[in-house]
């Protein structure tokens, strides 16, 4: 396992760009998740709960970083035209306006079904905004 730690550590130290550093960190989180899995599976039962938490948090960290746009499309700004970027920014701004209106309705309505629908829609609108940024 130490070999994997050393390899990722070297990649992190030698990363010369944000995409390279992000990729190395992502690989590091994957190694951490695998290492904590081995630890949790081989440790005495009395220490297992702490190791289980470590494994779960490592998975959560990996999952969170997996959503980074640069990790998924490192050359995004270089390959997109200005028109595409402008449209995405316009849509993202509009999503915020609509989401604010939806949340406003949720705060004013007395119908529980409307409140639930509005809040769920606002959450998804937030995901749209995040995806466009």
Distance between the termini: 37 Å
Secondary structure category: mainly alpha
Q: From N to C, what is the helix and strand string?
A: HHHHHHH
Would you count the extended β strands for me? Answer: 0
Mean pLDDT comes to 81
* Overall radius of gyration: 21 Å
Per DSSP, the total helix count is 7
Q: Could you give a short account of the major beta sheet? A: none
Shape: flat
- Point out poorly predicted stretches: none
- As a percent range, the share of strand residues is under 5%
Helix content: over 70%
Q: What does it look like?
A:
The protein is an all-alpha fold and 133 residues long. Helices cover 84% and strands 0% of the residues. The protein has seven helices and no strands. Helix 2 packs antiparallel against helix 3 (48-65) and helix 6 (82-108) runs antiparallel to helix 7. The chain is flat and about 55 Å long. The model has no long low-confidence stretch (mean pLDDT 81).
């Amino acid at each position: 396992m130490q070999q994997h730690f050393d390899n990722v550590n070297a990649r992190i130290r030698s990363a010369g760009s944000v995409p390279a550093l992000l990729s190395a960190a992502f690989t590091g989180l994957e190694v951490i998740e695998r290492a904590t899995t081995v630890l949790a599976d081989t440790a005495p039962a009395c220490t297992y709960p702490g190791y289980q938490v470590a494994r779960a948090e490592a998975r959560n960290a990996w999952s969170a970083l997996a959503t980074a746009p640069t990790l998924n499309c490192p050359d995004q700004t270089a390959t997109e035209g200005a028109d595409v970027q402008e449209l995405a920014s316009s849509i993202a701004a509009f999503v915020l306006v609509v989401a604010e209106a939806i949340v406003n309705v949720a705060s004013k309505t007395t119908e529980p079904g409307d409140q639930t629908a509005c809040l769920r829609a606002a959450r998804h609108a937030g995901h749209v905004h995040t995806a466009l940024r």
